[in-house]
Structure formats: structure tokens, C-alpha cells
Amino acid sequence: MSETGPHNDVSENLPSEHGAHEGGVAVKTDPFANPGLPPHEHRRQDIDDRAAKHSERVVAGLFTLSMLGTLGFIASFVIFPVDKIVFIFPFGHVSALNFSLGLTLAVAMLGIGAGAVHWARTLMSDEEITDERHRVDADDELRENVRQQWITGAKESGFGRRKLIRTTMFGALSLVPLSALLVLRDLGPLPEGKLDHTLWAKGKVLINTNTMEPLKPEDVMVGSLTFAQPQGLEESADDFQTQIAKAALMIVRLKPQDIKDKREASWGHEGIVAFSKICTHVGCPISLYEQQTHHVLCPCHQSTFDLSDGARVLFGPAGHPLPQLRISVNGEGNLIALGDFEEPVGPAFWER
């Protein structure tokens, strides 16, 4: 027995995989269609002037906190000595200077960052703008559009009319660079004239650094390399490392006919010449000598100097020759200096 009534098929009430049914007609839908932007929701600051003023004060307070952090950074250099150690939980015993510098600089940078973020999130325009993708090269219309958007954004940011934010922001940004100046200043004492002079002076005897005895011409053989230091410089001295780093000397004896530079010959004694031992690249001590070519090699970066030709640079990153020291012999037969180096020793100097 067959039923003769309406056909109740559940599938008729389900949408087709290609779309929905409207009035018996299938309507195709795009599952990847652009849903568009959701309706814009205004922030409290957009509709409540009191809330906007509060946010303005918060931003200004954060910028002011940054300024206080910078001032604290500067004050730390004056208040805390370098060797002061304090106990701070949970870090333990730490340098008071380093801890205060890190803390105050963090406050200074955090104040600027947090202030800028809070300003953007609460006071600057947050309306969503859509724009179609365009070619990389911009036409006049696009440039004008970008310019107008910039003008609109600057106007809506409130930068021109919110003087409190503008003033405190400029103050914070102006003070923070002072931290960098102090950090650079703390890299070490100002050189003043210390790099221009060494312990060498007229009449100073050359002391053999191995025997700690005065050097005599007969002690220096052709093809040998001898190291010397100024008379009176003792290893027990507090500033020994500082002074020897500038005054370290290397002595070689060349055959007079092998010396190519006339000034070098006149500044030596019977073929004995003295040059700074400190490489003019980064200040490494030079100790490798090739007696056949009269070349010395810096072991750090392979800068090579010709001791028979004014110690000029043959190879490597060194920028200028090794300074030469003028020497002679005193009445006791000892090698002596006739003055200091006429140019700063060691790595490149700023006037070069």
C-alpha cells in the first residue's frame, strides 16, 4: 500500500552545498566572501572629555617619570663610587653604581614607551581605514591622499592642542640622550695629553727588559731583536702597566747600508734603531722579527712593518708606521733616548 501525501524528505530543509534555497530557487553563497569591518566602537575617551583629560594626565605623568629616571641616572654617577657594593634582595651583593644606572635608565625608557603606547591607545584616532592594494610606484593622486591622511592623523592625535603631553614628551626625549653622553664619558678618564707623552725623555737610559740592565751598543747584535724600557720604571709601580703600554721599545741593529730611510739612520746609533713596540692598529705588542727582510709582524692581525724603511706599513690593517725614538750613547757607554716620541704611539689617533 503506497502513501499519497506530501513527501517529507529532511534533505529538502537543508541548504545545498552550493547555496541556500529561497522560494524554491538555489542561491549561491561565497564561503570566502569579505565580511567587512565590524561596526566601530567608540572608546570612553572619545565621548567623555573628563576621561580624555585623565588619559592626558596619565601620559604626561609617564613622560615626567621618564624625565625623573634620566635625572636619577645622572645623579647616580655623582652619588655612588665605582667600588661601592650593596646587598639588594634577591640579587645579593651587587655594585651600587651599576644597579642604580640600570634601574634609572630602565625607568627613563619605560616612561617614554608606556607614555607613547597609552597616548596611541586612548587619545589618538583608532578608526579603521581600508584601502585597496596599489602599485609600488605612487601617482600624484596617491601621494596627495597619503599627505591628507598624514595631516588628518596629526590633527586627530591632538599633538597640536594637547600642550601638556607635547611639553612633557619633548622634555623626556631631550633628557634621555644625556644618559648616552654620561655612559660614553664613563668609558674611561679623558685622555687630555696622556696619549701624547711617554716616560721617555732626554738622557733616559734604555733598560733591557730581560736583564733589567742598561743596554750598551755591543749588547745589540746584527739580526737580533731586543726589548727595552725607560730607566726608573719598576714593575712594582702602581702605573707600571699603563706606562709600559706606551713606552715599550724594540731595538734592532741593521747594517748601515740596509737602512733605506735617511731620518731613520740619523736617529739611530751605528745601525742601532729603536721603534715603539706597540702596533698602530689596536695596540698589540709586536714580537715577531724576520732578520733577513727586517720585517716585524704583529701577531694579532698580521700588520707588517719594514724596520729598514722607517717602520712603514707593508701589509695589514695598521694605518701608519711605528713611531721611532731618537737614541744615542752617553758618557758611560749606555744607549740613551734623546727625547720622547714625536708622535703618539699605539692605535690611530684622532688628529690622524
The CATH topology name of the largest domain reads Rieske Iron-sulfur Protein
Uncertain regions spanning at least 5 consecutive residues:
1-18
The total count of strands amounts to 15
Question: Element order, helices and strands?
Answer: EEHHEEHHHEEHEHEEEEEEEE
Largest sheet: 5 strands, antiparallel
Strand content: 15-25%
The rough form would be described as: elongated
CATH architectural arrangement of the largest domain: 3-layer Sandwich
Mean pLDDT: 86
Q: Percentage of helical residues?
A: 25-40%
Secondary-structure-based class equals alpha+beta
- Tally of separate domains: 2
The DSSP helix count reads 7
CATH superfamily of the largest domain: Rieske [2Fe-2S] iron-sulphur domain
Question: What is the CA-atom radius of gyration, in angstroms?
Answer: 39 Å
Give a verbal description of the structure.
The longest helix has 31 residues, at 49-79. The protein folds into 2 domains: 44-128 and 144-185; 206-337, Rieske Iron-sulfur Protein (3-layer Sandwich), CATH 2.102.10.10. The strands form 5 sheets. Strands 5-6-7-8-13 form a 5-stranded antiparallel β-sheet. The protein is an alpha+beta fold. The model is unreliable at 1-18 (pLDDT under 50). Helix content is 33%, strand content 16%. Strand 3 (85-88) and strand 4 form a beta hairpin. It has helices at 44-47, 49-79, 96-122, 140-156, 163-185, 240-247, 262-267; strands at 19-22, 25-28, 85-88, 92-95, 206-208, 225-230, 249-253, 272-276, 288-290, 295-297, 304-306, 312-315, 324-325, 327-329, 335-337. The protein has 7 helices and 15 strands. The radius of gyration is 39 Å and the shape is elongated. Helix 2 (49-79) packs antiparallel against helix 3, helix 2 (49-79) packs parallel to helix 5 and helix 3 (96-122) packs antiparallel against helix 5. Its main location: membrane. This is Cytochrome bc1 complex Rieske iron-sulfur subunit. Keywords: 2Fe-2S, Cell membrane, Disulfide bond, Electron transport, Iron, Iron-sulfur, Membrane, Metal-binding, Oxidoreductase, Respiratory chain, Transmembrane, Transmembrane helix, Transport. Belongs to the Rieske iron-sulfur protein family. It is found in: Cell membrane.
